[in-house]
Specification:
Blueprint (H helix, E strand, L loop, with lengths): L1 H30 L19 H4 L4 H4 L9
């Protein structure tokens, strides 16, 4: 009988603490200023592929020319 009474007391205390915590969280949420919603900016990237880009480069096109200096 004594064990049952202590178990009920423990359960009642647990429920009371949980209810107090829920009430406190509710009040804190109601009193806090509204948070701004995060804004996500998306960029649109367009990739254009031409048929000339698909062809392999010729040997003169891969060699550096005199007007372009190598870095």
């Amino acid at each position: 009988m004594q064990k049952l009474l202590s178990l009920r007391s423990l359960l009642g205390a647990f429920i009371a603490v949980a209810a107090a915590a829920a009430l406190g969280m509710s009040l804190a949420d109601a009193m806090s200023p509204p948070q701004p919603t995060p804004m996500v900016k998306l960029e649109r990237v367009v990739v254009q592929v031409s048929r000339r880009a698909e062809q392999p480069l010729s040997a003169p096109a891969t060699q550096p020319s005199a007007d372009r200096q190598a870095c």
